[in-house]
From TrEMBL:
Keyword Nucleotidyltransferase set for record: no
Alphabetized GO MF terms: kinase activity
Top-tier EC class: transferase
Superkingdom of source: Bacteria
Gene3D superfamilies tied to this protein: 1.10.287.130, 6.10.340.10, Histidine kinase-like ATPase, C-terminal domain (3.30.565.10)
Stretches that traverse the bilayer: 7-30, 180-204
Cited InterPro entries: HAMP_dom, HATPase_C_sf, HATPase_dom, His_kinase_dom, HisK_dim/P_dom, HisK_dim/P_sf, HssS/ArlS-like, Sig_transdc_His_kin-like_C
A Pfam family reported for this protein in Swiss-Prot or TrEMBL: HATPase_c
Catalytic activity of the protein: ATP + protein L-histidine = ADP + protein N-phospho-L-histidine
Record-linked PROSITE patterns: HAMP, HIS_KIN
Annotated ranges, domain Histidine kinase: 272-493
Protein name: histidine kinase
Enzyme Commission number(s) from the entry: 2.7.13.3
Length: 510
């Protein structure tokens, strides 16, 4: 769930849930207190609800039954109001109804409830009305007194005038109603606290916990620990940030690993170059010193020494050229110049040149062209020749000692592709090394002897060139029997377009 939706839901819950819960609790408390009021004050719950906002009427209902009983006593046996015990019993009943009683005979007070102030009674109580009763609902006395008075005026058989009054102060609150408001207030506060707590827990789990995990992850990234994985996150905005952070961590980890590998390769390259340059330089230095010291005292020796120096210089020049090409390939600045090439004419010339070089090294070359004579490809002739020369040179380096060297080149037409196979009968490559032979600076022979030395980037250059030609290269090998290189190049179909890619540096000069 999205974070914005959670916030909307939180707002609705915060507003609606307390209202609903408070209403439920208020209704339950009201029903409970209404039952209590009915039992104590004999007021029906229906009347209680109707008169809830009219305390005068409600107070009048509370003493209605006692008032009717007192009227009946006044009519049948008025003499009982002369009995202190009887009046005291009425007082106790009225105290339970939150009211008090006052009895006057011939204008004199004969009984007054303990909680009443006699000085105020003359103002509060109405005068005796001969032969008439005050309204059953009583009269309301406002001002400083705030009370409801119900009075019965009657005479006994001796002509004594009695006024029996029920006084109900309105300033006091009915305990049950007071409890009701307190219960509603407490339950409302409790519901608000509980709702806030639940929503805070929900929001905490949705926002704070993921942010804490994200903070921990950033600290791990800060100290270089790229292996710390972000846990699975919810489907919201915070989760999106966590997933983006996890993707960033993976990219940073790969970048760091690539940098380590690159640094390792660069160190290996420097070590290899240092070794491969130092070996011919040492030889050149030795032969030059031999000439200068007069050791080569005959023209034949001098010629031999100079030829050796020339060969060493050529090896160094080839190594530097290879490193230059690799640098351009690595930065995608190879000056490719694509053109249509007739494959048969191209490989006829190429293999004729290679065959002459191999003949001087006592290595046989077998060349077979199995495609049609008009088969063409779009390629850079110079770079394609570099591919063939690098593969052949690699085969020469790893020829099996004591065995007649043999290299074969076969060209096949396979539909949309031209399949070039270059095979030798050299040492072969181990199965565990085949996946790495196209890696930069990888060498199957780490001894780096003078015959098999090299930078280890020859096949990496080959792979890069073939891939830039939208082709594919792979190797098969059996240790002790030889290695076979397979190259697939797209054929040039009818009306096929091609482009020439110039060196970026040339464009800049222009």
């Amino acid at each position: 769930m999205k974070l914005r939706n959670k916030l909307k839901i939180s707002f609705c819950i915060m507003v609606i849930l307390p209202v609903i819960m408070c209403s439920i609790f208020a209704y339950a408390f009201f029903k409970y207190q209404a039952t209590t009021i009915h039992q104590l004050y004999e007021v029906d719950s229906g009347e209680l609800l109707d008169n809830f906002y009219s305390p005068v009427v409600l107070m009048g209902r509370m003493t209605e039954n006692i008032y009717n009983e007192m009227k009946e006593v006044a009519e049948t046996s008025p003499w009982q109001y002369n009995s202190v015990d009887f009046v005291k019993q009425l007082d106790e009943e009225l105290q339970c109804k939150l009211s008090s009683i006052v009895v006057r005979r011939n204008g004199l007070y004969t009984y007054v409830s303990d909680n009443l102030d006699i000085e105020k009674l003359d103002v509060v109580l109405p005068d005796y009305e001969a032969g008439e009763n005050i309204s059953d609902e009583g009269i309301y006395k406002g001002g400083d007194y705030q009370c409801l008075v119900k009075q019965i005026d009657f005479c006994d058989s001796y002509g004594n005038q009695y006024s029996v009054s029920i006084i109900t102060p309105l300033k006091q609150a009915i305990p049950q109603i007071k409890k009701f408001f307190i219960q509603v207030l407490i339950s409302g506060v409790f519901i608000l606290i509980l709702t806030s707590l639940l929503l805070n827990v929900w929001i905490y789990r949705s926002i704070i916990k993921p942010l804490d995990r994200l903070k921990l992850a950033t600290q791990n990234i800060k100290y270089g620990n790229f292996d710390f994985e972000m846990p699975k996150s919810s489907n919201d905005e915070i989760g999106d940030v966590c997933r983006d952070f996890e993707e960033m961590r993976v990219i940073l980890k790969k970048t760091a690993e690539d940098k380590l590998n690159s640094d390792k390769e660069e160190k290996e390259l420097i070590r290899n170059i240092s070794h491969d340059l130092k070996t011919p330089l040492t030889a050149i230095k030795g032969y030059v010193e031999g000439i200068l010291d007069g050791i080569a005292d005959t023209p034949e020796k001098q010629h031999k020494y100079l030829m050796t120096v020339a060969n060493k210089v050529n090896d160094m020049d080839k190594l530097i050229d290879e490193l230059t090409i690799y640098s351009k390939l690595d930065t995608n600045r190879v000056p490719y110049s694509f053109a249509k090439i007739n494959l048969k004419n191209y490989f006829d010339d190429c293999c004729e040149e290679i065959g002459m070089d191999l003949e001087t090294q006592d290595i046989d070359l077998e060349y077979r062209f199995h495609a049609t004579s008009d088969c063409t490809v779009v390629a850079d002739a110079e770079q394609l020749k570099r591919v063939v020369n690098n593969i052949v040179s690699n085969s020469i380096k790893y020829m099996q000692p004591g065995r007649k060297g043999k290299i074969s080149i076969d060209i096949y037409d396979e539909g949309d592709y031209v399949h070039i196979i270059i095979a030798d009968n050299g040492k072969g490559i181990g199965m565990d090394e085949i996946p790495h032979i196209f890696d930069r600076f990888y060498r199957t022979d780490s001894s780096r002897n003078s015959k098999q030395g090299g930078s280890g980037i020859g096949l990496a250059i080959v792979k890069k060139i073939i891939e830039d030609h939208k082709g594919k290269i792979w190797a098969e090998s059996v240790e002790g029997e030889g290695t076979t290189m397979h190259i697939n190049l797209l054929k040039d179909m009818d009306k096929r377009n091609y482009i020439c890619i110039e060196d970026n540096r040339k464009k800049e000069k222009k």
